[in-house]
Automatic annotation (TrEMBL):
Belongs to the Gfo/Idh/MocA family. Keywords: NAD, Oxidoreductase. GO terms for biological process: inositol catabolic process. Homotetramer. InterPro entries: Gfo-Idh-MocA_inositol_DH (IPR050424), Gfo/Idh/MocA-like_OxRdtase_C (IPR004104), Gfo/Idh/MocA-like_OxRdtase_N (IPR000683), MI/DCI_dehydrogenase (IPR023794), NAD(P)-bd_dom_sf (IPR036291). This is Inositol 2-dehydrogenase. It comes from Microlunatus flavus. One of its GO terms (molecular function) is nucleotide binding.
Amino acid sequence: MPDALREQPSGDLRVAVLGVGMMGAFHADALATRTKGARVVVVNDFAPDKAAEVAARVGARVVDDPIAAIDDPEVDAVLIATPGRAHAEQVQACLDAGKPVLCEKPLTTDEASSYALVEAEARLGRPLVQLGFMRRFDAEYAALKQLITSGGLGNPLLVHCTHRNPTVPDFFTEEFMIRDSVVHEVDVARFLLDEEITAVQVLRGVATSAAPEGTSDPMIVVFETASGRLVTDEIYVRSGVAYEVRTEVVGESGSAMIGLDQNLVRTSTDGRWGGTITPGFVERFGQAYDTELQRWVAAARRGTIDGPGVWDGYAAVAVCEAGVQAVRTGEKVPVVLKPRPRPSTSSDGGSGNDHEPGITEPDLIASRP
Ligand SMILES: NC(=O)C1=CN([C@@H]2O[C@H](COP(=O)(O)OP(=O)(O)OC[C@H]3O[C@@H](n4cnc5c(N)ncnc54)[C@H](O)[C@@H]3O)[C@@H](O)[C@H]2O)C=CC1
Ligand SMILES: O=C1[C@@H](O)[C@H](O)[C@@H](O)[C@H](O)[C@H]1O
């Protein structure tokens, strides 16, 4: 337990939330209303009006500078939900302050800065950085992982992923789609298959007319793993329909798919039957975000992490960097990871993929937003 935490009467983890746009405001509200053992004490955002609004709602102070927010003596731990380009400096500041941090994906926007954080954490000798790969905490992904590890599908041979967003802003170029969206399937593949990705290829086809001129949307990304397995990912961020995330694992003795009918309410009306599809990631992964947060809070109160760590963040960024090169060149691009420092910098002590979050979370006060 961090010393500061021991000294305060409530024992609550006092959190600074950096970046209270869409995701940060969601997490801040979750900390304030749906999470046990934590409270938001500091809010920071480049946009002062957003910071003031969220701070007032959750009963926190506004601190104008992000590094000052991290270093604030009242702050035990930090949740970073600023855009990826701000993460390198802010995560480093958390390590410098010795404070546990839950950082939204991606860890950073380039491999070198991500690896610098791996090395910095290794020098500290204890895991402090947890990544916001929330799908590991989703009940369906956890069940799929369990099915694979129990041998229920036999040797897994292929993974097929679909990742569709209904709409995104125009700054979602192919490069951004890889770094910000496909990064989730990179982590899913590493998590489910328990091995590293060693090569990436990207296929571009006919683009939707909803995409800006010259942007290939959708794309098919193909990953190869260390043992030679193949993973396909359809990334389509302007589908115009809904938020659809599916994953199918094909094994030697069977296959399993998730994401087919979450939240399905079958309706019959106007002579047709059907269900609803989740409109966005908060509706689809609400339980996963909250479970992730609750487990991080519990771990941070012990001064550690409970989930994907800095190595997982680095490996995903390295794969995405190869993916960006693959988009540019049309070639298959190898991924060569730098050495993994010891002692382990992940909560699981292994490849970073053994973590199996529980499907139920007894400490969670409410699991749906
Ligand atoms: N795990 C998931 O499913 C999701 C993760 N994300 C991740 O969350 C992060 C934030 O994304 P969104 O909330 O969608 O973005 P957003 O643009 O809605 O919010 C970002 C906020 O950070 C503020 N900001 C920008 N630079 C800053 C800096 N240097 N210091 C302090 N504040 C700064 C902005 O003013 C804005 O309010 C990104 O890393 C994104 O990839 C976003 C959506 C879903
Ligand atoms: O992380 C997320 C966004 O940042 C990203 O832009 C979306 O494509 C993902 O579906 C969502 O989970």
